[in-house]
Amino acid sequence: VHVQVVGGVPGAPAGALPSGLFIGSLRQLPPDRRARAGDLIQRSDSLAPESLVDLNSALVADVIVIATDAGSSLEDTPVHVHLQGSGAPAFSQPRVLVDVAHNSRLTLSLEHSGREGTLANAVTQAWVGQGGHLDLIRVQCLPDDGMLTDTSRIELAAGASVHVTSVDLGSLLSRQSMTVVLAGAGASATVDGLFLADGHRHIDNRTLLEHQAPATTSRESFRGLADGHGRGVFNGKIIVMPGAAGSNAALSNRNLLLAATAEIDTKPELEIYVDDVRCSHGATTGQLDANALFYLRSRGLDP
After folding, report:
1. Following DSSP, what letter does each residue of 265-284 receive, concatenated?
2. Is the separation of the CB atoms in 180 and 157 below 8 Å?
3. CB atoms closer than 10 angstroms to residue 191
4. Between the CA of residue 69 and those of 99, 103, 194, what are the distances in Å?
């Protein structure tokens, strides 16, 4: 299932939707869907203020709503949303609202691209109900002069799970801020990320995994590459709140510098406010090994 969103305005899905899946515009929601969407938006608005989310709310043209029915399994029918910036001088405000019902499964890919001069401020809000699963793939491949700020929040009910795969390959400036809230007992989250900061790109990834309930599990692994005059930034944070006993969390960030002029800054963080947890975090930044390079070149591989 493919949906095109140009300048923040969603188009109609291409082809017929499978049973158990709803995709539509917030402005044209049927009454049975409107109340639920309003509850989810109100839940997000009740949180601590975020300037970029507030900016999106003030300027958003429309919201694309993706929802599943309880018990539906749609992993074999992935939904691809193409968020395309319309280019200068437009400042697009795409917004995606995802509602995965209890005991249902959804695969969703969000692709950020656009014309030259694209400037976008994207917001994604997702709720995964009890026993549900969301497989979210996010890809940013803007043109070399494009700029993107991308704020996402995923909340998990009891026994729910999410697997996020994030890839940044383009743009002049890209900043992702992602929060995953493990709000229900037994919830689990896996976050995998990769970025390539070559040329003069600045790619910034900031993640927060918040354990609010007992027996929750999170695994986060980010990999970074920097070349030329590129700069990568990673700030990963795990918080284990009071009452989240039995939580199990691990965070890893490994980076590789391909040029002496490249830069990667990393800051892994752990905050634990309860006993009986298993948590770890670590980060490395290094260069290619000179002996390994010599070995490969001696076998006929060029630089």
Report:
1. EEEEEEEE-SSS-EEEEEEE
2. no
3. 22
4. 9, 9, 32
* pLDDT tens sequence across 260-293: 999 999 999 999 999 999 999 999 999 988 899 9
What phi and psi values does residue 190 have, to the nearest 5 degrees?
-125, 125
How is residue 60 written in tokens? 């958003």
Would you state the structure tokens that stand for residue 238, as one six-digit string?
A: 């795990």
pTM: 0.92
Average pLDDT of the segment spanning 70-82: 91
Q: What residues have CB less than 8 Å from 232, skipping those under 6 apart?
A: 195, 197, 202, 203, 204, 205, 224, 225, 226, 255, 263, 264, 265
Residue 237: CB partners within 8 Å, gap ≥ 6? Answer: 206, 207, 208, 209, 268, 269, 270, 271
Structural contact between residues 169 and 198, judged by C-beta atoms closer than 8 angstroms? no
Strands (DSSP E) found in the chain: 2-6, 9-10, 21-25, 64-68, 73-85, 91-92, 95-100, 105-114, 119-128, 133-140, 147-156, 161-168, 173-182, 188-197, 202-211, 217-226, 231-240, 248-257, 263-272, 278-287
Q: What type of residue is 192? A: D
